[in-house]
Structure formats: C-alpha cells, structure tokens
Please model this.
Amino acid sequence: MKPPPFEYVRPGSLPEALDALARHGATGRILAGGQSLVPMMNLRLVKPAVLIDINRVPGLAEIRVDGGELVIGALARHAALLGSALVRKHCPLMADAYRWVGHGPIRNRGTLGGNISHADPASEMPAVLAACDATIGVRSAKQSRTIPAAGFFTGALATALAEGEMVTEIRVPLAQPGQGAAWEEAANRKGDFAMAGVGVLVTVAGGKCTHAAIGVAGMAKPGTRLSATEKRLVGTALDAAAIAAAARAAREEVRPSTSYHADATYKRELVETLAARALAAARDRAR
Amino acid sequence: MALIPINVTVNGTRFERAVEPRRLLADFLREDLDLKATHIGCEHGVCGACTVLVAGEAVRSCLTFAVQADGCEVRTADGLAQAGKLSPLQQAFWEKHGLQCGYCTSGMMMVASELLERNARPTKAEIEEAVSSNLCRCTGYYNIVESVQRAVELMQEGAK
Model:
C-alpha cells in the first residue's frame, strides 16, 4: 500500500530538528534510514502527521573514539558500521553481529540510532549494546541525558525515549585486552529477522573468566541480558563443562516470544546451542 | 498536503517536479517520470524489485520518499543501455537467461551495478551475497549469479 499523508520537515541542524520535534509532540516522528518506519507507514500500521527528516543534519553520522569510548552518531549507517575499522577494533561484538544485519540496500540506509529507537526484539544491536554496557545519548529541545542500554529498551518496540526526545549518539566502552566477543544467530536466511541470536563478551585473566556478559535477540524484550547465567560463568575456566552448564542455564533464563518460524520451545533450544557456540568462540578469542 | 518542489537527476536528465511528501520514489519514477523499468513488488522493502541507485548506493525506492531524493542523482535500469546498445550487464542477463519471468530483473541489475562499481572482480560468494537482498520467485538464482559472472567477463573484455 501507499503511506498515509503527512507533513514533511527537513531540518538543517540538530537544534532545528529538536525544535520541530518539540513543536509536533507525539504526532511527529523522526525519519532516519526509514527501513522500519516506512514499511510500517506503507502497511498503515503507523500514521505520523509529521515526519522530521534528519538525513541532512550534519555531524550526526560520525564514528569516532572519545577517551575510553567508541562514539557512534545516531545517523551512522549500518553499512558504514559494518565496514568500520574502528568498530572492528573497539567493539568486535558489534562487528561480529553486523554480519547478520539486513541486506546491502537496507544497510545502505538503515541507521544504528533508528534501529535502537525502533527497538525490534529480533534485532541484533539492542542485544549487542546491552552486552557491551553501552549508553544511549538522547536529547530534546530542553535537555540532554544518558540512558544505559539495558534501561533504554523497555519492551517490544518500546523505549525509554520521552516525547520530544531523540537518540543522538551511542557510546560503547572500548574493548579491553583479555576480552573476547562472539555473536551467533539462527535466521531463516542470513539478513532476515533473527529467530534467536546470542552475543557474548567474556574477559579472561589467569585462565579464569572474570567478567561475562550475554545479550539475546529474538526474545520477548529487546536488549535483554542473561545476568543469572553470566554470574555462573565468572570464576570458571570456561571449559566445556562450564560452557555446557551455562548454555543450559541460558535456555531456562530467556523469555522467548513466539514468532511465525519459531515457537518458544524451539527458541529455547536455539539459545542453548547458540550460547554454547558463542561462549566457546568468545573464550578462544580472549586468549 | 502542500506539494513540495524537488529537482532530481535521473539517468543524467534533470527533472523538476512538485510532489506530495508521501510520494514514494518508486511511484515518482514510474508515474511522474514515466520510467517504468523500476518494478514494484512488495512495497515494504522485502523483495528488492524496486531497487535503484541514489548517489551511487542501492536503495529500496519503495522505502524512500521522492522528496528525500531532492538534489540527488538517481539511476534506474531505464538508463543502463547506452545509445540503443545493451550494457554488459544487460547483455549478460540476456545470454545467460538471467531474466526468467523478468519481474525482479531491474532490481537485480541495480544491486549488481552497485556491486560491480565497488568491486570489478567479485567472487561467486560476493555475487550471491549481493543478490540475496532481492527475491526471485522463479527461484532461479543460478542464472542470475551466472549472468553477473558473465557481465564481469564482458566488462573485462570491453576494457582490453
């Protein structure tokens, strides 16, 4: 179908965009890459009265290192992040997960800021950002604030963004020596929505796991961490027995949703298998 | 809704038009400019039949509003042939029966155009990855991949 009528605003700067967002309140939506919003409009699932197109706002698409953090502008495209040497070096979990994100033309337009604002539970990036303890920088015309990734995602297609707020940047702590990362996923075709995805970050020192973070995709809530399973891993040698036990724990800890191609039981089985693979790969990369 | 004036260069020709904000780029090309090579399949970004190049990048024209292409250079399958002569990609699709039913062809050619402009000698795996963004419901990806491989040969012969 065709999208419903709307008014189009194209701000030339961030303050202009924030003013427009403040002016139009709940009836205005930010248009970034449009790869989720426009399909929803074409299907008439959403009918924003005003679209605020931020694609020509300068400075919003930067990928840079600032102190101990990788800083990603909200408008950075998936294609740019997939090809970024900075991302590979400083956030290998994101680089690994990006192999599974969308197809070329979707990655050319889709943005990280738009992706997380949409908060699709099947999406890889909310899980990656939660596992990395990233923070989300958001602004409105009146104020700016920082939200931990784990608290940013409040449910399926729901975030902590208040009316008039938009994501402006994502900050990810730089990967440290001794850390290993891996993303494993099951989807019907590469680039399709994940049935289940598991992202793992482990730190190994003196042969023992000192930190573990696990983020899962394809479950009921985007950006979910498996904190009970993580605790079981700390102090272990990440040997085969510890990984198998953790993978079984992950299977129990997840809260799967049912999707067309995978019911909750199948998703739990996927999580166990994917978690075991991701943990082993992350451990090997940490050495 | 008020119409918004835009000017867009399509296949080298500049067009000035006024459009409704909700006008999809795919409909702008087909209906307003009468350029019918761009096909519309699913209208929600899944099938890729409507893929065109905007500023050299392959995009879904059903997920792009025409107003967003204001000031941009757009390329479509209408512009592949030059002076009545098939481009190497078109010639290769013809030789290898890459068209099949023909519905996905123009989208396939545009993703292949982007690939070949970035990488003149892609591997089979790289070609498969590129065309995997687009659906062929004849399920004839073999012929499409062979067509792109043939286009690589033709372009290299042409460059000699």
